[in-house]
Amino acid sequence: MGHVRVVYEEFKVLGKELVDKVGQLIHAGNVRRIIVKDDKGNTFMEIPLTVATVGTIAVPVLAALGAIAALIANFTIGVEKVKEDDSGQAPKEQ
């Protein structure tokens, strides 16, 4: 049985690409949380995702992001993903 670990990644996107990128991440299925920040690090939206809420949350969230994207040019998207570690080794303590 593999171990589950959480991985954090960041993507820099332009305002016009924000809605498309978040839509792709929501539909990826292994995303636990999405954080949308401006270029100064201010958090605009934090989206917790579960398998049950993906379908119901996508449309209103993407509409809100479209409105935000029209106002600001550069964003950073922080993504928490769940990954299976199939190496058979216990995760290292940090």
Distance between the termini: 22 Å
Order of helices and strands: EHEEHE
Number of domains: 1
How many helical stretches? 2
Structural class: alpha+beta
Give the secondary structure arrangement, pairings included:
Elements: E1 3-14, H1 15-28, E2 31-38, E3 43-48, H2 54-69, E4 74-85
Antiparallel strand pairs: 1-4, 2-3, 2-4
Helix pairs in contact: 1-2
Summarize the structure in words:
By secondary structure, the chain is of the alpha+beta class. The protein has one domain. It contains two helices and four strands. Strands 1-4-2-3 form a four-stranded antiparallel sheet. A hairpin with a 4-residue loop joins β2 and β3. α1 runs antiparallel to α2. The model has no long low-confidence stretch (mean pLDDT 79).
What is shown here, in short?
With 94 residues, the protein is of the alpha+beta class. The protein has helices at residues 15-28, 54-69, and strands spanning 3-14, 31-38, 43-48, 74-85.
Which key features would you list for this structure?
2 helices; 4 strands; about 90 residues
